[in-house]
């Protein structure tokens, strides 16, 4: 018995067409859901931020050096919070970048295939540890060591949170950098070896520069993680908005401030309540800019080798 | 042929990948200031043989070799020999042009730096110019030395790779199908360049293209799969190129070059 192509076509075609439409509609709804959520969040943030800036001038917000919305004499200078955020994030990057890069170079250039298959998942498990664990690790383990080394260290301090946060972002830094290094074509390594380069010269002077945009993307992603990180700083860095570059002092980051206000009994619609939206908006803009930069850097990196 | 003229010599060379014997019992010689072509069908181990001359095979974790390869009489597989030193004396040009993603200038200067260059900027400039002239590329790139090596055309990139290789003054240059990714005009340029280079260097070239072997080489090694199940490659015939292409002794060579095989 023979089946004609024509009969096959008419039966399956209609069925497949219907399936395609249903799947497309479903996936569209879910895509819309996540886009809609984001839009909703931005709308709410913007709304409250505008209300906040009706009461506080935007110039004061960005230039005043004191942040005391919860005190009787209220001042609304966000700089101390930004300072705290950047101080802790910079400290975290000081830990995460060198260690992450070394780990990435080891995994991509030196480790045997077998070792890499074991180590990389372990590294990625490290990324799955809840940040609250890192927070208490900072407070109960790192801080006492710091206080032994530097007696002037305050109980809550930026350095301790920085170190814990550095270890938290390390897997991200290492993993994304390793992907970038591994994406460098084998032919480039061979070219270097054929010129009489050692393994170290090849890794640091040929492979790493060739993967630079990927490594830069890893760096930016890590910075934006560090800026947005909340739990570690809320637990270990303190609640004192301060303009300082001394990491041994207690500081308050933007995220920690939001936690502080949200946990307290701040009345709804009060000015203190509205500050968290203004701070949140600023935080959102900062990480958004970071993500946009990383998007373009990564795109450049892809064009090069694919 | 006078033994003083032998630069490279393999003695009962076997190369394995894991348990797989890729090339077996290879015995042949490469003569100074001559171009030696290695020809044969795909997968017969031509590249493996070429890469054993500068110990590039050992970058593949499972690779190992038996037998000897003598370079000016010295076994390069001796445990006391540093493969990095071997590669400084025996350079390589690859099938696909692979310049570093650095400037044209840096592509050449880098090899000199890692090989211990400690001179002034103007000495470096001279060496870079010399290498680029040697690879017949200088006139085309002298005004854009700070541009990326990747901005050049395929043929120019390949000549940049040749310039990079000769900059560190090796004795031997290994070429793994250097023209296979190039158009016919770029190919002819590379072939002309090879004839010039043999004044100062010894060249070993792997090629799929028999016309190319006939055009440029002085000696030809014919490789073929042999042994149990015909899985291991070996050199079945080695002679002057004009003899290989006109009066081959082995029937298989004759079949291959006349197109009755592979």
Automatic annotation (TrEMBL), chain A:
Keywords, alphabetical: Cell membrane, Membrane, Phosphate transport, Transmembrane, Transmembrane helix, Transport
GO molecular-function terms, A-Z: phosphate transmembrane transporter activity
UniProt cross-references to InterPro entries, sorted A to Z: MetI-like, MetI-like_sf, Phosphate_PstC
Residue ranges of the TM segments: 21-43, 86-110, 122-143, 155-176, 206-227, 271-297
CDD domains named in the record: TM_PBP2
UniProt key word Acetylation: no
Membrane topology reported for the UniProt record: Multi-pass membrane protein
Compartments, as annotated in UniProt: Cell membrane; Membrane
Domain ABC transmembrane type-1 residues, every copy: 82-294
GO cellular component entries: plasma membrane
Alphabetical GO biological process terms: phosphate ion transport
Signal peptide: none
Keyword Disulfide bond: no
Protein family: Belongs to the binding-protein-dependent transport system permease family. CysTW subfamily.
Protein task: Part of the binding-protein-dependent transport system for phosphate; probably responsible for the translocation of the substrate across the membrane.
Protein name, per record: Phosphate transport system permease protein
């Amino acid at each position: 018995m023979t089946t004609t192509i024509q009969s096959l076509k008419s039966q399956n075609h209609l069925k497949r067409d219907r399936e395609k439409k249903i799947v497309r509609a479903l996936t569209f709804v879910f895509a819309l859901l996540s886009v809609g959520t984001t839009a909703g969040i931005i709308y709410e943030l913007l709304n409250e931020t505008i209300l906040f800036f009706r009461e506080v001038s935007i110039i004061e917000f960005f230039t005043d050096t004191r942040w005391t919305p919860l005190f009787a004499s209220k001042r609304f200078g966000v700089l101390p919070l930004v300072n705290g955020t950047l101080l802790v994030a910079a400290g975290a990057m000081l830990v995460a970048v060198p260690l992450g890069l070394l780990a990435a170079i080891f995994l991509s250039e030196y480790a045997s295939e077998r070792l890499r298959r074991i180590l990389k998942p372990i590294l990625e498990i490290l990324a799955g540890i809840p940040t609250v664990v890192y927070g208490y690790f900072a407070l109960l383990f790192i801080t006492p060591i710091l206080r032994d080394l530097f007696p002037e260290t305050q109980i809550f301090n930026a350095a301790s949170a920085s170190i814990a946060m550095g270890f938290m972002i390390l897997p991200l830094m290492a993993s994304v950098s390793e992907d970038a290094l591994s994406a460098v074509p084998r032919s480039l390594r061979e070219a270097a070896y054929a010129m009489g380069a050692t393994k170290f010269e090849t890794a640091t002077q040929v492979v790493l520069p060739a993967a630079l945009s990927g490594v830069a993307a890893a760096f930016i992603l890590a910075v934006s993680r560090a800026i947005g990180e909340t739990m570690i700083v809320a637990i270990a860095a303190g609640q004192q908005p301060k303009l300082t570059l001394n990491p041994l002092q207690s500081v308050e980051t933007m995220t920690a401030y939001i936690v502080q206000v949200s946990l307290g009994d701040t009345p709804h619609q009060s000015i203190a309540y509205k500050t968290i939206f203004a701070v949140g908006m600023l935080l959102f803009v900062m990480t958004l800019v970071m993500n946009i930069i990383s998007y373009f850097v990564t795109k450049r990196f892809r064009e090069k080798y694919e | 042929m006078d033994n003083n003229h032998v630069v490279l010599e393999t003695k009962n060379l076997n190369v394995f990948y894991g348990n797989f014997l890729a090339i077996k019992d290879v015995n042949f010689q490469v003569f100074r200031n001559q171009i030696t072509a290695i020809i044969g069908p795909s997968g017969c181990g031509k590249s493996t043989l070429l890469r054993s001359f500068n110990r590039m095979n050992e970058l593949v974790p499972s690779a190992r070799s038996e037998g000897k390869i003598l370079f000016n009489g010295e076994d390069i597989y001796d445990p006391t020999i540093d493969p990095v030193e071997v590669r400084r004396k025996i350079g390589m040009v690859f099938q696909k042009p692979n310049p570093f993603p650095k400037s044209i200038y840096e592509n050449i200067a880098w090899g000199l730096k890692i090989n211990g260059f400690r001179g002034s900027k103007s000495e470096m400039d001279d060496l870079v110019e010399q290498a680029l002239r040697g690879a017949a590329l200088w006139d085309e790139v002298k005004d854009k030395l700070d541009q990326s090596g990747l901005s050049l055309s395929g043929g120019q990139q390949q000549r940049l790779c040749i310039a990079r290789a000769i900059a560190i003054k090796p004795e031997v240059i290994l070429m793994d199908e250097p023209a296979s990714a190039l158009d016919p005009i770029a190919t002819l340029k590379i072939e002309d360049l090879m004839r010039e280079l043999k004044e100062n260097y010894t060249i070993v070239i792997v090629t799929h293209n028999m016309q190319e072997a006939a055009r440029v080489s002085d000696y030809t090694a014919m490789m073929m799969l042999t042994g149990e199940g015909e899985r291991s490659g070996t050199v079945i015939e080695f002679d002057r190129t004009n003899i290989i292409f006109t009066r081959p002794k082995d029937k298989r060579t004759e079949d291959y070059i006349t197109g009755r095989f592979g």
